[in-house]
Design a protein that fits this description.
The chain has about 170 residues and is an all-alpha fold. The protein has helices at about 5-15, 25-35, 45-55, 65-80, 85-95, 115-120, 140-145, 165, and strands at about 25, 65.
């Protein structure tokens, strides 16, 4: 398996847990060309990439295989490297892609703002929300959300529960 095919498979599986790596969607095709520097926004735009993808894929299909991907690269390489011959341009495009992996730049990170810490600190909870957590801050589960009857016969907040037998 060539370096180009390895890169194709990595991008084909990106973002889809059920993907096998044999077929690539239009979204992942566009991401691959953007991450590898083929789509530069001037010579090759996202519109160009979408047009080529829809031209290459079989009618009614939503994905392309590796052979169709190579055919799409042949169409796009002439646009990206205008002064070079088709073979040189294709090799230049392949050189940009070989060994690349999907980038996670701009992916949403968890926030560490001061307000979040204050809002998620269970020691500061009051009222009925306080009852949902134990002293360590771990949730009590169903016992913290629902009133569970203890069946002792005493009123809920009665302090002298269990003392009747001792006094009578």
């Amino acid at each position: 398996m060539s370096e180009l095919e390895k890169a194709f498979r990595k991008f084909a599986m990106y973002g889809d847990t059920a993907a096998t790596g044999n077929d690539m969607t239009g979204k992942n095709f566009s991401k691959m060309l953007k991450d590898c520097g083929v789509m530069d926004g001037k010579a090759v735009t996202s519109t160009d990439v979408d047009i080529v993808f829809n031209k290459i894929k079989t009618k009614g299909a939503r994905t392309i295989n590796f052979a169709e991907f190579q055919q799409a690269m042949k169409e796009l390489c002439g646009k990206r490297f205008k002064g070079k011959s088709p073979e040189e341009a294709l090799q230049a495009v392949y050189a940009l892609m070989e060994g690349k992996e999907p980038a996670n730049v701009g992916v949403t990170k968890t926030t560490t703002a001061g307000g979040v810490d204050r809002l998620t600190d269970t020691s500061k909870y009051t009222g009925s929300h306080k009852e949902r957590f134990d002293e360590s801050g771990k949730g009590k589960g169903i016992a913290g959300r629902e009133d569970v009857t203890n069946g002792s016969g005493y009123v809920g907040a009665y302090k002298g529960a269990g003392t009747y037998d001792k006094t009578h």
